[in-house]
Structures are given as structure tokens and as C-alpha cells.
Design a protein that fits this description.
By secondary structure, the chain is an all-alpha fold. Helices cover 77% and strands 1% of the residues. It has helices at residues 2-28, 33-38, 45-55, 61-73, 87-120, 126-141, 144-158, 171-200, 203-210, 215-240, 242-253, 258-267, 271-299; strands at 79-80, 85-86.
Amino acid sequence: MRHVLRRLGTGLVVLWAAATAAYLALLLAPGDVVDRIIGDGADTPEIRAQIVRDWHLDRPEIVQYADYLWRLLRGDLGTSYLLQRPVADVLGEQIPPTLQLAALAGALGVALAVLAAVAGAGDRRPWLRRVLSTAELAVVSTPSFLIGIVLLTVFSFRLGLFPVAGGAGPAALVLPAVTLALPIAGLLGQVLRDGLDRALDEPFVVTARARGLRDRAVLARHALRHALLPAVTLAGWQFGLLLGSAVIVEQVFGRPGVGRVTLDAVLGSDMPVVLAVVVLAAAVHVALNTLADLAYLLIDPRLRRTT
């Protein structure tokens, strides 16, 4: 229980730091604060007065900062003066497609990593290990947008198997999910395989084999669990970055989602939306890393006695 509370406390500190950094970036940037907040939205005296009221710009800066944090705690993300709508409504409409894409990509990446690690672990098939290691290095070293362009060229333009753009139907989700999943699978596969190699040299594996267990059973029942801890740490970090990667991939495939809203907000200097996306990304990163830390307790029961 102490471990859980400690992780939650750390997560709250990270969220506070991200929100504070975003707010200071807005406050300290050159130019008038009202001009930065309004961006390319309608610039009228009435809207300027509304911004002063909404952000309490007529009060001392420390009061403005405290009010900003209080609004975040209440879930008030402000108003998009470019779209003339509450930011919560704007993001609320676009988050489901992004979450759908990120969840599928994460699950696919983990599945591919486990399959590749188990297939290439040990010294049974050195040629397969070399092929998998080369493929993993290639996808990890290649930017996600370039992977997406290659997949589009091959499977959409040439073979016509998947739609070129859009977000309608399951088929439109396949290539973006694979684009995000391949780098995850490449990095996780390398870490998992190294962990499996170390686990296969442990005495408990020798004992399991002496009892007559086959190599596949030894890998699945014994070695894989011991190799999971470093992979879970890395997975939590990678999944936390999925939102940022999805922003780029959604643009490549013309999908709806947070990516399109973020790009429009940056190009239109719609600072309330940009600030909200920063806080949202930090919240997702904290939540996923906290879940990864708590997963340790399920994977290794010995850790429960030390927390």
C-alpha cells in the first residue's frame, strides 16, 4: 500500500511540474499574453475582455497561477478562442480515435515483441535470431512517419489492400496501428530476448529441464516471467510516448484524433488547446508508468514483501 501511495504522490508531482512548465512557457514568451492566448482566433474587444476575465489577467501573477491550477483540478481546460468552444469538448471528441489507435498499437507491439523474443531466444536457431535482431534494429532506427509512408506506398497505393486516408472502419486502423507497433515491438523484443537469455542460464531452468519440460514450456512458464520486469519498465515508458507518436502518425494517415487538433492548435497559436494537450500527455505518461510499476507486484510476488 505504501508503494502505491508513493507512486501516486510521484505522479501528482510530475503532473504539477508539467502543468507549471506549460504555464510558465505561456507567461514568459515574448509579446502580450492576450495575443498569445487568442492566437489566430477572432480578435475583438469583447473576446479580449473575456480572456482577461477567464485567465484573471488583471490580478497578480501568483493569483493567476493558483487560479490556473485550480481550474485544472476542476477539469476546466479553458476555451479555444480559435474554435470558440471549450477545450474539454474539443479534445473529448478527438480522444476516442486516438485511444483506439494507441491501444491497438500497444497490444500489437507487445504481442510481436513476445513472439520475436521467444522465437529467437537461446541458441536453437541462430539464423532466425540474426534476422530478428536486424529487423528490430531497422524498425527502432526508422522514424515512425517514414514507416507509415512505406506501409502506405506498399499496401495502399500499390496493393490497394487498405484505404489511403481516413478513419472509417477497421481497415483504416490497421496500417496506423502497425506503424506505431513496429518500433515498440523492436525495442521490447530486444530487451525481452536479452532477459530470456539470462533467465535460461539460471539454475531453476536447469531444474525445470531435468524434470522433463520441453524448451517451449520452460520459456513460457519460467523464463518469460523473469524476463518481464525490465520489459515492463520499458513498455510503460514507450506507451507513455504513444500519444506523441500518434499525433504524427494520424497526420500521415489522415485520421481524426488528437493529432489533427494539436497540429491545428500549434499552427493557429491556440494556446489553451496546446496547454491542455501538454497536460493530457503528461497525465497519460504518469498513469501508464504507474500501472507499469504496479504490475511488478503481480509479476514478482517477492516485491510485495518489500513495499
